[in-house]
Amino acid sequence: MSRSSRDTPVGGAGRDALYQRFYALIDCIPRGRVATYGQIAREAGRPRHARHVGYALRALPPGSKLPWYRVINSRGEISARPSEGYPLQRERLLAEGIVLDRRGRVDLERFGWVPDL
DNA sequence: AATGTGACCGCGA
DNA sequence: TTCGCGGCCACAT
């Protein structure tokens, strides 16, 4: 491993490869659990690049099989805009047994995804 | 090239 | 707990 320890190369392909990595990670989120944008970015070896996770998801085609709805922000809230996928996302989460409190927030302590290696 | 925006995050007040 | 700010970086104009 003669690689610099401060970061993980994306592989040379750049942005596209990074997005693919985000997608792969999101695809691993089990049913009934949620992950945060920051968490996905971190798992992908790009801490503090949470915004790009949202970017990648925004670029996702409608009808994608990816469980994008299991990705929420660090406060446990749905970040998608009401005019975008908010209603659908809320519905999907509820359908999996995830509880949203009165303010529409998910208890990350309880439903947060803990990736096991 | 420069500027503004964004499905975000974390910290300090 | 909420609110404000700076940081991050790709993308649209």
Give a short summary of the structure.
This protein is mostly helical. It has five helices and two strands. Helices cover 36% and strands 3% of the residues.
Describe this structure in words.
With 117 residues, this protein is mostly helical. 36% of the residues lie in helices and 3% in strands. It is built from 5 helices and 2 strands. Strands 1-2 form a two-stranded parallel ribbon. Helix 2 packs across helix 3 (50-58). It is globular and about 40 Å long. The protein binds a DNA duplex (13 and 13 nucleotides) through helix 2, helix 3 and strand 2.
Low-pLDDT segments: 1-12
Number of strands: 2
What's the end-to-end separation, in Å? 20 Å
Cα shape: globular
| Share of β-strand residues | under 5%
Spatial strand order of the main sheet: 1-2
Please render the helix and strand layout as text.
Elements: H1 15-26, E1 35-36, H2 37-43, H3 50-58, E2 71-72, H4 86-95, H5 108-111
Parallel strand pairs: 1-2
Helix pairs in contact: 2-3
The structure holds a DNA duplex (13 and 13 nucleotides).
